[in-house]
Amino acid sequence: MSEINVLIVEDEPMVAEDIAEALNNIDFKVSAVVYTEKAALEALKNNTPDIVLLDINLKKGNEGMHIAEEINRRYQIPFVYLTAYSDKATLEMVQHTDPSGYLVKPFTEKGLFASLQLALLTHGKKVKASFTMPELTKINQKIPTPLSDREYELLQKIFDGLTSKEISNSLFISVSTVKTHIRNIYLKLDVYSRTAALAKVRELMAF
């Protein structure tokens, strides 16, 4: 199972269930499935995911855009809009919220995988352009249990937006070893996701 956590915000339970099943099939982890704006904001607060699949039109209209604005304001994580419509008017309506992608329903597992991977890569490039990973010694001065050289190397790969499999290939280690290192990084930084790990490093360097 991937360590990339996905929050699903979709007001049709059957559709949400299909999405969750598809995510499991393509090796992503579902952090939560919610159906309303209120539940989405609560899920973001309690267990911030790495990426959000967000229905544009929830039952009350523009709630999807409201959630997107909150994501941008508080969490700075990528989100992909789910929509049954791909017309120009719909896309222009939500463009100001700066989504990392769109996924038109119905979709295939391959389409879902490609949308998520592209969104994570695009967002990673934005983050990288605005933030430089500090040196290992500077990070270790700020945390109780220091990161090892190898863990720092993996943290840099996460910062570059690489998946566990891509990290495995680049460092010539198994995927299970990569996941073990990532779990140790999370423990040492006291976080539970990739996005939270990078946010924690940024926070540590601000003081």
Could you characterize what this model shows?
The chain has two domains: 5-126, Rossmann fold, CATH 3.40.50; 131-205, Arc Repressor Mutant, subunit A, CATH 1.10.10. It has 207 residues and is α/β, with parallel strands linked by helices. Helix content is 56%, strand content 12%. It has a five-stranded parallel beta sheet with strand order 2-1-3-4-5, with helices on both faces. It has helices at 13-25, 37-46, 63-75, 88-94, 109-130, 136-140, 149-159, 164-171, 175-189, 194-205, and strands at residues 5-9, 29-34, 51-55, 79-83, 101-104.
Number of strands: 5
Order of helices and strands: EHEHEHEHEHHHHHH
Mean pLDDT, to the nearest integer, reads 88
CATH architecture of the largest domain: 3-Layer(aba) Sandwich
Mind telling me the CATH superfamily name of the largest domain?
Response regulator
- Into how many domains do the coordinates divide? 2
Largest sheet entry:
5 strands, parallel
Sequence of strands across the biggest β-sheet? 2-1-3-4-5
At the first level of CATH, what is the class of the largest domain?
A: Alpha Beta
Oligomer: single chain
Please indicate the percent range of residues in DSSP E strands (runs of 2 or more).
Answer: 5-15%
Number of helices: 10
Please estimate the helix content: 55-70%
- The fold-level CATH name of the largest domain is Rossmann fold
How far do the termini sit from each other? 35 Å
What's the overall geometry? globular
